[in-house]
UniProtKB/TrEMBL annotation:
Lineage of the organism: Eukaryota, Metazoa, Chordata, Craniata, Vertebrata
The protein's name: Myelin protein zero-like protein 3 isoform X3
Pfam family membership, one: V-set
Similarity comment text for this entry: Belongs to the myelin P0 protein family.
Alphabetic keyword roster: Disulfide bond, Glycoprotein, Immunoglobulin domain, Membrane, Signal, Transmembrane, Transmembrane helix
TM regions (residue ranges): 155-174
Length: 230
């Protein structure tokens, strides 16, 4: 009989224990596993939390940093009813608040990141009576931005179309100059042309120029037709 009286009390204690365990896991924190940044360009470290309890002035947010080579944790940012960036350390005057607790956002921004900032950042949130059950870490990788050159498909197609045309034009010019030099040896010897030779050569030069222009136009038209067909 005595054992039967203790059973209701044991069930109640077990229920309270399960409720307490469930209560501990009502706060969830989400943060990016990896973030890439460039030297001198601001970067945002995002952190969001989900809490079943309403946000009050008791809510606290803490960001810490551990160098990539290891070492002690370094306080970076603290929030409780207001933003309190670190006043000393490597992130002094380089961290600002970028979140909104009313939207369950605990993000921060790092200004002027350097190569020495490579490491792991941890976002910790407490919203009593909810207690966090996970502590996500964000690996920040800072590098130098290289020269950017992007060749679009249209630009590449234009190069492939007009480059052969330009080569053809150059070859035609070289060939015509060679032909003109063979037909007029007197010019290479430095002899002065007579008025009759000049009058005969002028129409020939105009004819050569006209043929050259015609050939160039045909090459360009042929290239454009090929481009449209592709």
């Amino acid at each position: 009989m005595g054992l039967e009286r203790k059973q209701p009390g044991g069930a109640a204690a077990l229920s309270l224990l399960l409720l307490a365990v469930a209560r501990v896991h009502l706060l969830e924190i989400q943060a990016a596993a990896q973030v890439r940044a460039f030297v001198g360009e601001p970067v945002t470290l995002k952190c969001r939390f989900k809490s079943s309890a309403p946000v009050t002035e008791k809510l606290t947010i803490d960001w810490t940093y551990r160098p990539l080579a290891g070492g002690n944790l370094e306080p970076v940012f603290h929030y409780q009813s207001g933003a309190y960036p670190a006043k000393r350390g490597s992130f002094q005057e380089r961290v600002s608040w970028a979140g909104d607790v009313s939207k369950q956002d605990a993000s921060i921004m790092i200004w002027n990141p350097t190569l020495e900032d490579n490491g792991t950042f941890t976002c910790t949130v407490k919203n009593p009576p909810d207690v966090q059950h996970n502590i996500p870490q964000t690996l920040l990788t800072v590098s130098r931005r290289g020269p950017s050159f992007q060749l679009t498909s249209s630009g590449l197609l234009s190069i492939l179309v007009f480059l052969p045309s330009g080569i053809v034009v150059v070859l035609l010019l070289v060939r015509m100059n060679q032909k003109s030099g063979l037909m007029k040896p007197s010019r290479q010897l430095g002899c002065k042309k007579s008025s009759i030779e000049a009058s005969i050569e002028e129409p020939e030069q105009r004819g050569c120029r006209e043929r050259l222009v015609s050939c160039c136009l045909q090459c360009l038209l042929h290239s454009e037709v090929c481009q449209h067909q592709e």
